[in-house]
Write a structure and sequence with these properties.
Layout: H1 14-107, H2 140-159, H3 164-175, H4 181-191
Helix pairs in contact: 1-2, 2-3, 2-4
Length: 193
């Protein structure tokens, strides 16, 4: 506590003395407040700098993770395309070997049986064991191979982004005209999943 000795102080009124003390106290308060504000601003600056550093580090790590995921996804897509290309090539080769046999059976019409001549009374009827005109067996195995081949080629083209008309045009060129609407509906619905 500050004590004033009346003999050492110059003669001043008590009002002046109170004003000086109030001014000194106000100055001290202003200085303390300014120092506190400076210190608080420094703390805020440090916190903002740390937050910015953390944000930049998190963004860099997220970018690296995205790039790795993109590269992995691209690799998997390329591997799947290569596998489909290899499978499609193998199946097309197998189908090409099987289809000519099936097409031969389908495209060569069975010879029409000649009309039997009306029996004349003078001629003897044909022997009962006479051979009939040959009939081609249905080409079920070739049809199956062709259907599987058409489906695989259509699926590969759909995965590669080809549209319905392009797929149908290629299948018609390779395998002839046919109603493939059910096959194309199925393949395109699966390819878009």
């Amino acid at each position: 506590m500050l004590t004033l000795c009346p003999t050492r102080l110059p003669a001043m009124s008590s009002g002046q003395h109170a004003d000086e003390l109030a001014a000194e106290a106000a100055e001290t308060v202003r200085r303390v407040v300014a120092e506190a504000e400076d210190h608080a601003a420094e703390i805020v600056r440090d916190a903002e700098a740390r937050a910015e550093s953390i944000r930049e580090q998190a963004e860099a790590e997220a970018k690296q993770i995205r790039e790795r995921a993109d590269a992995d996804a691209r690799g998997q897509i390329e591997a799947a395309k290569r596998a489909l290309d290899e499978l499609g090539g193998t199946l097309v080769a197998a189908a090409t070997e099987a289809i000519p046999k099936a097409e031969t059976a389908e495209t060569e019409p069975a010879p029409e049986p000649e009309p039997e001549p009306e029996p004349e009374p003078e001629t003897e009827p044909e022997a009962p064991g006479a051979p009939e005109a040959p009939v081609s067996p249905p080409a079920t195995n070739g049809d199956n191979a062709q259907n599987h081949t058409e489906r695989l080629i259509a699926m590969k083209m759909a995965v590669d982004g080809e549209n319905r008309d392009g797929i149908e045009t290629l299948l018609t060129e390779k395998f002839g005209a046919a109603d493939r609407s059910a096959l194309l509906d199925d393949v395109l619905s699966r390819a878009t999943r």
